[in-house]
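Retro notes - structure team

What went well: the batch runner handled both jobs without manual restarts.
What didn't: labels got mixed up in the shared folder, which is why I'm recording both outputs here explicitly, each with its sequence directly above its tokens.

Job 1
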Amino acid sequence: MSPGRRASRACEEIDSLSEKIPPQKLRIATHMVAEMLAPVRAAFPEVEVVTLPVEGELPPDLEAEILLTLPWGTPNLADALACGVKWVHAYGTGVNGFPFEVLKGVPLSCSRGASATPISEWVIAVLLAAEKQLPQTWLSEPPERWNIADLGTLSGSRLALIGFGAIAQAIARRALPFGMKVRGFRRTGRQSSVPEVEIVTSLEELLCDADHVVVAAPETPATRHMLNDESFALMKPGVHVVNIARGGLIDQAALARALDSGRVGLATLDCVDPEPLPEGHWLYSHPKVRLSAHISWSSPESHSGLMDRFVENLARYHRGEALDYLVDPVEQY
């Protein structure tokens, strides 16, 4: 047999053999409930999903390229990462509680920005509630006077956004049609993606004349307690402070002093430190505090939005493209 025929015969044998060996499946290990990965199975029916316990021993001989896990990690996270994981995705928009030290160079992404729409709607609702004195002006008995009130307006008021990521940008886009004047704070000074928003790089410039201050920055070691006695002193008396980010961004002892002195006229807090807030905490009863249980993200599409970010990145991974929504392990956001 000639060398050319031998080479041809070898190629045919290899082709035949490859048809008999099924392609290796992409395997995802996850700490999430299996039913939550239905969108993944629908988009990638060839992908194998292995459900892991959140603590305790992992399945023997576990191997997986991808790990979908909780944004605060799990007790067995390090063991899961040791099973050949090349990419980790945290099922959440923030990763301030994630144990970065166990990653050891494995890239981490999250579902950053997935809750921008419901959170921005919630912020507009509480800004309107503050200006229109809701629910205080609802009636349960005849008032002393009809047709008279001293209500505020969003039109012409100044909105300060601490942080200018996807959530803050969504807030800005909804605030501008109300006639609000919007500033955003970015340490880098990178240009605004919303042309009508002025970007500043100092808290003093951001806070000095704001009527409403919305905290929308990630919590990192560098941003913890960024609102403190010094930053409250920069605000004009009677300012409305809203937190939809993380409780640790505000020094709550300093907030109490600012509320009692009148520097802060109202604090609307969807995030506090700690969570859950213990019974008897002063934030429950302070007359100038409106408190909710970290629910501003909630909407009918909340969970699908978080999973959509993962599915988008899974498609990129499958095509060999660069991942999106990556977390900087040094900056921790």
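Job 2
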Amino acid sequence: AALAHDVGNPPFGHAGEQAISGFFASHPAGLELKKMLNEAQYADLTAFEGNAQGFRLLNQTHHGLRLTYATLGAFSKYPRQSLGNRQKGRASQKKYGFFQTEKEQFAAVAEGLQLLPAAPWAWHRHPLAFLVEAADDICYHIIDLEDGCTLGLLSLDDTIELLRPIIGKRFDRAKLQAKQSLHEKTGTLRALAINELVEQTVEVFLAHEEALLSAHYDQPLTAEIPAAAALQQVIDISVDKIYRARVVLEKELAGFEVLQGLLEAYVTALLHRHQGKPGRQHENLLAIVPDEYRHRLSGTALYDDLRVILDYLSGMTDSHALTLFRKLKGITLPGG
């Protein structure tokens, strides 16, 4: 479950999610869809969610992984649909975990695992989902800090001072200084910090086992570990020094242009097809969609076809999306 947790993320990561959501919420082609879809379907599009995309991919008929209900339950950090009021203060309500196309599949998972219902089309988490969330939080923040140091966005001394309170008594400055390269030093710090955070998280999980099973506990495990304040400082510094660094922001801006440009082309083509007035350009565009996606386009169910196109685009790497964008815009020619 932990290894699969990011499988649904689009190109350019969370910035990509925002680019897709923003297109459907504000672009004329996206707004046109509001009149053609039901409320729940449109809510899925205007808040694209990598977790829900991941659940969809894992459960596809031809390319899914045929995972057990327990694994799918542990994977699902947000066991709810996009539409509906969210209960503030509950970690499992912060986002959503399945699209309308997979709602019945998720209901089957919830029934099989006896997940406790929270609201219509919303359930309380499987207890193991809290461990997957913690694993994500720990690795995400510590490894991003390591990357920031490696890229020169943060000094080694600053990195040491941020991780030393987490590592605690296992921190040995003399042994660290004996390491020859920056890579060895940051790798050692990373391993020690992650190990300590894992141990603390396991203790919190076991301490709250009964509350987790009865759905009375619904906050990140890392919020209650002894190193919570130190981990929050890592997060705060990362936001200021790494995530807002010029090189990161430039990449995000490029991602918005690329993804919204691709969506404009493909969504417009789908709209023309479903409205019975396809042009040659639109049909050519849909014709070059890879077979594994093109054969799933029905031409009759608009929402389902939009999901297929989003499978295609969100499954790309950053470089693949950029290459396709350049070709479609005539910036580069095939073979050039």
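One thing worth noting from job 2: DSSP finds 17 helices and two strands in the chain.
We'll revisit the folder naming next retro.
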